[in-house]
Amino acid sequence: MQPHRGTTILLLGIIACCGGCILAGLPAWVMANNDLTLMEAGRMDAEGRGLTQAGKVCGIIGTGLTGVALLASVLIASSQGS
Length: 82
What we know:
Blueprint: H1 6-19, H2 22-41, H3 49-81
């Protein structure tokens, strides 16, 4: 049985939320999806399920915040050029 990576996933998710970095948010999201699938199949230690789910949520939020910030930047830049 594989050990869980909940702590790593949560750390990436928190970095994504605090720093708004999509380079941390997307990996947290993808890793969490893969790990949760393995946990459901019984091939990964399910003890880290809570950490993994929290990291996934933080990764999703961080990715969303980065997207909103990028969109706002584009809109502000385009309005300044007019």
